[in-house]
Write a structure and sequence with these properties.
This protein is mostly helical. The chain has one domain. Helices cover 70% and strands 0% of the residues. The protein contains twelve helices and no strands. The longest helix has 35 residues. The chain starts with a helix and ends in a 14-residue tail after the last helix.
Length: 280
């Protein structure tokens, strides 16, 4: 149970990592990596941890009730009538985050389509991508409604498995390989210095994901090693260092000095007041 809750919390935190660029792009140029990291982490931690604590108390106080009823019961025990207020507040938060999730899903679908064939985003295409996300999410939700908690745990497990090698690669690339030196222009250029496909990243991801499979433990699949461990899921503890190590190894062939110079040269004039290629 401890490992299950630990990795469920980790999965929740990692699931927010894809939203980083939605906010960091609006930060002033003088905001450093340290400030961005710690304030983002602090907000994500507090935002999730206090609700997890509320859920724990609610489940312990009313183990036979469903999630919403248990939360209402626990809040009413603190202050009569508070339960309904809490549920209304939770509903408003759910609507807000659902809108953000649909927005993210829409961008992801459009990005995938643009990767295959360049397209010009129009209002119709945005609405179509939103409709696809809406139908898919509702179909999944309705099919899981009979056993929602278990299906939600399975979803968190799948997210954790998918995000673990991806997270390792991103962290290693940013902090150990390129150390924050990237070209914004080249990221959006399929024929540029980064290429359409990053074989190093794909290799590390596939290897990291593959070594995790025997350690998977969820309602969808339990690997042989996880079964031998009594159902304990330690896949993240395996996939994270393996993906990181493989990526670090295959990146040894990159000329990092030349890479940084090309990135600086490509972004000259991107922003007013930005350093030139000679001073970057």
């Amino acid at each position: 149970p401890f490992l299950a809750q630990l990795f469920a919390a980790a999965s929740y935190q990692l699931s927010w990592s894809i939203y980083v660029s939605d906010y960091s792009r609006y930060l002033p140029r003088d905001v450093g990596v340290r400030e961005s990291f710690w304030w983002t982490y602090f907000g994500a931690f507090v935002g999730g941890a206090w609700m997890m604590l509320v859920g724990t108390v609610a489940a312990a106080a009313a183990p036979k009730l469903d999630v919403a009823a248990a939360m209402e019961h626990a809040a009413d025990a603190v202050l009569p009538g508070l339960g309904r207020v809490l549920l209304v507040g939770a509903l408003l938060g759910l609507v807000t985050i659902s809108a953000l999730n649909f927005y993210g899903a829409s961008l992801t679908l459009l990005s995938c389509a643009d990767t295959v064939k360049p397209l010009r985003c129009t209002a119709v295409k945005r609405l179509v991508s939103l409709a696809v996300a809406f139908v898919a999410s509702n179909a999944i939700a309705l099919s899981s409604s009979s056993n929602f908690v278990n299906r939600f745990e399975d979803l968190l497990a799948v997210l954790l498995y998918l995000f673990t090698p991806w997270t390792a690669i991103n962290l290693v690339d940013f902090y150990l390989v390129r150390k924050g030196h990237y070209s914004i222009r080249e990221i959006f250029n399929p024929g540029g210095m980064y290429g359409r496909w990053n074989w190093r990243g794909l290799t590390a991801y596939l290897v990291g994901f593959a070594v995790m499979i025997p350690f998977f433990s969820s309602g969808l699949y339990t690997g042989p090693i996880a079964r031998a461990l009594g159902g304990a899921d330690i896949a993240m503890l395996v996939g994270l260092p393996v993906a990181a190590g493989v990526y670090l190894l295959v990146c040894r062939s990159i000329d990092l000095k030349l890479d940084a110079q090309r990135a600086a040269a490509a972004d000259v004039g991107l922003e007013p007041g930005a350093p030139s290629a000679q001073t970057a």
